[in-house]
UniProtKB/TrEMBL annotation:
Organism this protein belongs to: Coprobacter fastidiosus
Gene3D superfamilies referenced in this protein's UniProt entry, alphabetically: Glycosidases
A Pfam family matched in the record: Glyco_hydro_30
GO cellular component, one term: membrane
Lineage top rank: taxon: Bacteria
Any GO molecular function: glucosylceramidase activity
Protein name: Glycosyl hydrolase family 30
Limits of the Glycosyl hydrolase family 30 TIM-barrel domain: 2-52, 82-143
Length: 145
């Protein structure tokens, strides 16, 4: 939900229907299985281009619908680096880990971004190393202390 800084509408319902079934079956086979999580991208409203993708799809169909002028270029951070967005994203991670824990799935570690140095035509977000370190050190890390 756009501008849900307090994560009032946060939900893992989609995960419950598919992903969690696979995780729980794997845990039955290997009870000591350690799970880590990494998002493909933050919610689009938290990104500078307000779109799930980062790269323009120049195919005739333009499958992702991202206008070329809103494509991200490297090296750049595609996340809105204002404190309100950073705090909301840290809360997003916290709620995710807590929600999985309630479902019996302990998340051992999180990685804040899958492929942070790569623009993609699918869900993705670029992060400069210094911005990633700032987010983890000042916002995400303290939520997990």
């Amino acid at each position: 939900v756009v501008d849900d800084f307090d994560m009032i509408n946060f939900s893992i319902d989609r995960d419950r229907h598919i992903l969690m079934r696979y995780i729980k079956e794997a845990q039955k086979i290997h009870p000591g299985l350690k799970i880590w999580a990494s998002p493909w991208c933050p919610p689009a409203w938290m990104k500078t281009n307000n779109h799930y993708a980062s790269e323009y799809d120049n195919s005739p169909v333009n499958h992702n619908g991202l206008p070329q002028k809103r494509a991200l270029e490297l090296p750049t951070t595609g996340f809105k680096m204002q404190p309100g967005y950073l705090d909301a994203y840290a809360l997003y991670f916290t709620k995710f880990v807590q929600a999985y824990e309630k479902e019996g799935i302990k998340i051992e570690a999180v990685n804040i971004q899958n492929e942070p140095c790569s623009t993609q035509k699918y869900a993705s977000c670029t992060w400069r190393p210094e911005d990633m370190a700032y987010f983890i050190g000042k916002f995400l890390g303290p939520k997990f202390e």
